[in-house]
Amino acid sequence: MGNKKQRRKMKLLILSVLYAFLNFGSAPKTTLNVEITNVKKAKGKLWIGIYKPNEKFGGDKPGIYKLIDVQSAGNQNATFELEPGRYALAVYHDLNNNNEMDKNLVGIPKEPYGFSKDFRPKFSAPKFTDCAFDVPAAGQKISVKITD
């Protein structure tokens, strides 16, 4: 009888450890709602990239991104499920669907773009800290105005 209890306790212990192992590292998710304003043309795609502090801000491959087909001019919305934390956002309107930000010879964007906190760079690309915002466990809504 005592042997059965020990086996039952051992099974329960193994199952508990297995459950804890499988759920280890999976932080709870929250919702980030993003509104992109000043979208003037009903064509192309909006490319929205969300960067974590350890990623190269403004780089080609953020850990989290979405493409939105622009069907009509006006405000566009996107929803992201992510862990609470600090992030920065970059968006551009790919008007000609070539999947890249078109720039002039000097490197200035030719397509509409924007950053979180509506940061407007003067002489160089923004840094993560210029555009960083917090997403609390309760979720967050931000608005980004793209350039004309």
Overall description:
The mean pLDDT is 89. This protein is an alpha+beta fold. The protein has helices spanning 2-23, 128-131, and strands at residues 30-37, 45-51, 64-69, 76-82, 85-94, 113-115, 133-135, 140-145. Helices cover 18% and strands 34% of the residues. It is elongated and about 80 Å long. The chain has a single domain (30-145), classed as Sandwich (Immunoglobulin-like), CATH 2.60.40. It starts with a helix and ends with a strand. Strands 2, 3, 5, 6 and 7 form a five-stranded antiparallel beta sheet that branches. It has a three-stranded mixed beta sheet with strand order 4-1-8, with no helix packed on it. It contains two helices and eight strands; from the N terminus they run αββββββαββ. InterPro entries: DUF2141. Keywords: Signal. Residues 1-25 form the signal peptide. This is DUF2141 domain-containing protein. It comes from Dyadobacter flavalbus.
